[in-house]
Amino acid sequence: MPITSTTTTLQVQLAAAVRRRRAAQASAASRALGIAAVEATAAQAAAAVAPSASIEACTAALTAEVLSLNDAALPGKVCRAALAARLQSSQASCLIALANNNTNDNNNNNTNSNNNKNNDNNNNTNNNNNSTSSDVVRPVVVGFVVSEAGRGAVDIVLLAVASGCRRRGVGRALLAAALAQASAAGSTSASLSVRSDNVQAVRLYESLSFRWVCSSRIKVKGGRWVKTKKGDEVRSGGSYGIEPVVRKAGDPLFAVLGLVIIPFLWSVPIALMTAEMCSAFPHVGGKIYCVHEGFGPCVGWLNGAFNAVSNVFDVAALPAMALGYAKMFWGAELEGIGDYFAYLLIILATLMNILGVELVGMSSYIFTIIVCSPFVVLFCLGCGRLPELREERFETQPMNNLKFISCLLWNMSGYDDAGATAAEIINPRHVYPRALSISVCLVSVMYLLPVLVGLTVLPDVDAWHDGSFVEIGGLIGGPFMAATIAILGIVSGFGQLNALMCSSVREIVCLAEMPCQPVPQFLGRLHPRFLTPHIGTMVFSSLLFCLVGTDFTDLVAASMFFDCFSFVLQFAAWIRYRLRTSSDDLDTSLDLGYRAPLGMTGVILLSALPICLCILAVFLTWQEKGTECKIGFFGTFAVSTLMYWLQPAASGALASSSSAPLLAGTH
């Protein structure tokens, strides 16, 4: 991705300098050999760089030394073990202090040990006023990490620990140094980032492809450092939208069994996969970026294309759901103006998304509390009727396999969308597991209990449709309860529309910012005041207008059809990521974020469950909607493939299509 002077949303990646690496147990002799090699390389690199050298000179020296060490046929695990031992000690690996020509004394202090970092920062603060040059960074500690990411990948990490790294121009200096080194070696692609409030990290791979990493607390706008907004996404839309599942099941028993079993077969695997992958790759776009990292830009683009089409149908279903509840209560008054009501909801959600993620996050919390409360009251009022279910004789009808599976999976989905705002969430390794575990439990309970209570007063499954909880509320709690559920059904649809639009647009932004993707970069352009992708949000909203008036269940079936292809690729990326970072080989001294408590076999078995459900959903959709499915699938595949091959950077994409540094390790 070419680096421009326009506003750039920096990616989040906690512990970027020490990403998960495979590390087998090394013998004592091999560990000693590795430590000696690192010590020798540190001495050579330190001797090769003058105290007042520029970043470019230091980077060149370190690159040569690290590549020579990698060529020495030392096992990667030995080098990692040696590095881990050094990082745990009082000294850092291969420290070299940099300063400008006027601060040579500070450089001598920096080369002693990591214990002098505070002194370096103090010296740096004192010297910041002595020079206004932005081409040379004040005292900076430079270290490197040697690792084996599959096929001899080499990481070179530049750590700027001085307070001056927050000063205007410093990030550009590191950027220029990295790009200069890549250009000298013939690199064809580069993408850069910053890590932590005052730590800048650039990772250089043997193939000389760059990744730019940063803390969630930082964005850069024209050299100005600002705080980002926290978009913690823990939300539930209440029980709204689950009613068609009962009707399409044909038998209440199948509906209840589905609500009990599917969270374990579908929701839990998706939540675990999302929590691990998004804490490992906390990037704008979440699942889009993970597949891109796992399989390269070509497969990443196909995943993004199918996911984008799915998101359009998915988000469009939410105004339809809200409209269904509005018609249940104000049917006569809304006759003829229902579409305008849906347009209004889309416009309001668009405005809120442009105003900022913090507003979306706060509103999602409020909406969750509000829309869940009437179902808690409904269950409390009707729980005494539950024993009647044993004696109730239900009228059954044939199951609509497609819409039953589609509506059930659709209502139990959405956890993967939480990863789209990973770049704006502080401390994702702790936020995601907690948020997703709460969401899975809350959503499952909020669907099951009201359905059980509703079956006691509305046993005819044919009477269940979008908005039936309004009728159920009236039968149990009277007109006031019916009105409350109807109004909050609209609020629920709007709240989910608001949050899902936020995550969907972030995935488009992710595609626009990644290299070798045929998405116009202007879609990811940020608003100068609110720092939100306003252009991408408006373009996405315009697509929703075209689907207003479409049946709710048809939108859900279309959304799940395209989403299933994306889910298969996401779980495949998770499996590949685990293969590259096997827990059996993992160096436990490295801080690597959340990791699902499963071994390699557990990940494969857990992934097989939702993949089988995806295959079933696609088969049923293809069987019932053959013509529409063929047009949708082959049309999306053909158009996305054509866009990918016709993009100007297609030749560069082909050269690096197999390059997925953190997962594939193919260089």
Automatic annotation (TrEMBL):
Domain N-acetyltransferase: 141-232
Alphabetized Pfam families for the sequence: AA_permease_2, Acetyltransf_1
UniProt name for this protein: N-acetyltransferase domain-containing protein
Protein's membrane topology: Multi-pass membrane protein
A Gene Ontology molecular function term of the record: acyltransferase activity, transferring groups other than amino-acyl groups
Annotated family: Belongs to the amino acid-polyamine-organocation (APC) superfamily. Polyamine:cation symporter (PHS) (TC 2.A.3.12) family.
Location in or out of the cell: Cell membrane
Organism: Polarella glacialis
Sequence segments annotated as region (Disordered): 101-134
Transmembrane intervals: 253-272, 337-356, 362-384, 435-457, 469-491, 530-550, 598-622, 642-664
Keywords recorded for this protein, A-Z: Cell membrane, Membrane, Transmembrane, Transmembrane helix, Transport
One GO cellular component term: plasma membrane
